[in-house]
Amino acid sequence: MRQQIFVSACLVGGLVLSACAKDDTEAVDRAFQEVNVVDESNLNDVMLTVADPNEAVTYFQRTVKSAPERIDLNRGLALSLIRAKRNTEAVTAWKKVVSLPEATDADRVELADALIRTSNWDEAKATLDKVPPTHETFKRYRLEAMVADSEQNWKRSDSFYQTAVGLTTQPARVMNNWGYSKLTRGDYAEAERLFGDAIRQDQSLFTAKNNLVLARGAQRNYTLPVIPMDQSERAQLLHTLALSAVKQGDVQTGESLLRQAISTHPQHFDAAARALAALENG
């Protein structure tokens, strides 16, 4: 009888130990899974920020194959393709993202952005129309303004640009876009003002500096504005101003500005030298 009790106790003890071992194993597995998720998340972030864009594309293409329905990996692939300037592929990737059940309005805005980068204006507009008005973000309104520009719907464009500027703490680039919109309409004075505002927000934005010179040149104002610029930038802006003068028939002014550009540039300024030679040769 005592032997039976001893055997039963051993069996029960073995079962308890087995159960404990199983619980410990499951706990360890869960812990490793959690560590893997954290590590993967960190790696995804690295790939989306500091990694070479094409390396990031390769990484996300590989991971998406192993988990094709994971929206975070599909987003990573789409964002990496945009960073790598592979915009046509990015459109396909974003379309996959928005087809997934967890897709958000922000994903649809990103799809519209990719469509604009490939000049699919009608499809971009249709995509933005699916985003509810309650989704009020800087990027959404900036894209809406660009679509309105493509339709030459200037009143709508100005409204969206104004809203976008109010939704960001870094409005320089959208001010530059708005200024370019005014430039294409022939509203040169307003374009000049907006480019100046953009430069005050970001003194490194050379595109805005170049556009500012174009706006001044369109008004036959051939003097450089008082803005921050290094010697190389000064030469390039003089070159832009010279071409603007020539385009409007002020050829002698253009020649003089080209000579200034060549003498100002810290190195040989081939584009300006070729333009000057062309003018001197008639």
From TrEMBL:
Residues 1-21 form the signal peptide. This is Type IV pilus biogenesis/stability protein PilW. Coiled coil: none annotated. It comes from the Bacteria. Transmembrane segments: none annotated. PROSITE patterns: PROKAR_LIPOPROTEIN. Pfam families: TPR_16 (PF13432). It comes from Phaeobacter porticola. Keywords: Signal.
